[in-house]
Amino acid sequence: MNPLDLIFSTLAAFCQIYFVLLIIRVLLSWFPNVNWYDPPFSIVSQLTDPYLNIFRSFIPPLGGIDISPMLAILLLQFVGQLFSSFPSAVSTF
């Protein structure tokens, strides 16, 4: 495995791990009694909010429903697929 394959495989794995964190964040947001200042929840919040805030800045909530996580997850999955397919595309050249 060459270094470029390792870099893109690592980035693809990071995208998958971050995807799981985003899903956890979205699922926990459905529970109103979650205290985002408690240690297990604050870690998820601190890791995911900077990325989600990018999308929240230009996608306002519609009828009280925040749809920015859907776009954030779609973009993350797209980038993760690019990273995971890049090593095989480079090796064909």
Task: Kindly summarize this structure in a few lines.
With 93 residues, this protein is mainly α.
Offer a few descriptive terms.
Putative integral membrane protein; 3 helices; transmembrane; membrane; mainly alpha; 93 residues
Verbal overview:
- With 93 residues, this protein is an all-alpha fold.
- It has one domain.
- It is built from three helices and no strands.
- Helix 1 packs across helix 2 and helix 2 packs across helix 3.
Domain count, please report it.
Answer: 1
The SSE order reads HHH
Rg, alpha carbons: 16 Å
Shape, please? Answer: elongated
Family: Belongs to the YggT family.
Pfam families: CCB3_YggT
Transmembrane segments: 6-28
Organism: Oscillatoria acuminata PCC 6304
Could you give the topology of this structure?
Elements: H1 3-29, H2 39-56, H3 68-91
Helix pairs in contact: 1-2, 1-3, 2-3
